[in-house]
Design goal:
It is a multi-pass membrane protein. By secondary structure, the protein is mainly α. About 75% of the residues lie in helices and about 0% in strands. Helix 3 runs antiparallel to helix 9 (about 180-200), helix 4 packs antiparallel against helix 5 (about 95-100) and helix 4 (about 70-90) runs antiparallel to helix 8.
Length: about 300
Amino acid sequence: MSRNMSMISIAAGAALWGIIGLFVTFLYDYGFTPVQVVAVRVSSAALLLLIYTYFNGKKDLRINWKDSHYFIGTGIISIVFFNLCLFIAMEETSIAVAVTLLYTAPAFVTIFSRFLFGELFTGNKILALAITLIGCSLVVGLIPFSDFSLSLYGVLAGLGSGFFYALYSIFATYALRKYSSVTVTVYTFVFASIAILPFAGLGDIKSTFTLPAVWLNIGGIGLFSTTLAFLLYTKGLEKIESSRASIIATIEPVAATLLSFFVFREILTSWQLAGFILVVTAVILVQRRPRSSFAKRKAS
């Protein structure tokens, strides 16, 4: 896959993530809790991925079990907690606010990359971190002239989703040094399913599984907003560094905001919209290459 196709792959995956609020909201309407939505998401994705991999390349199912720590990282530490925090934030605030807070992730990636990969704090990165802080403050109402308030629990959950979302890029970067994108994605969801299913309490809502609409939404969240999204995003990480992938993935909050407005009529206030724009701007800013670095690349 070329570098350009890798960027398109990441963008497509991010767009599919952006519509996840559609399926989550409908599952809430049928009585699902955030933990149960996470459980059906990761387990349906694990099943679909295992079937896909079995018929398209059994070699991708082979791993050294001594490498399980990679998938504990991507699957349990990142995916389970990222989803749980995101779905709680959607329930407590709104789709648009939750996804905006999710996009504090690039700020966390910048900090992690400094200590794990030795990437320097440039002027752009420091400015982007400051803009992210200001943007999030506007979104959640931490300004004296705002006329709205949000659930503190929802806000903390939203920030938590950004933290754990950032960890996926970090853990996946390490895992991709030994395994293909398909292998990483499959075992991410297998490990996530093993971790959460015993605690999800799906038996408490077994009657809802007789409803076709429930299965339609489970299929949507499992196939489109999970299986295809993660395959596309992780495939793109093979050629695009994790920090740069963050800028391309800003398609996700845009898609989520449009969805929340046109489908659920959730409206951001003017201050929240300004905060949303600042957060997206910060993601773009943190990925800008210094001019001197760009000049060196052209000269080489």
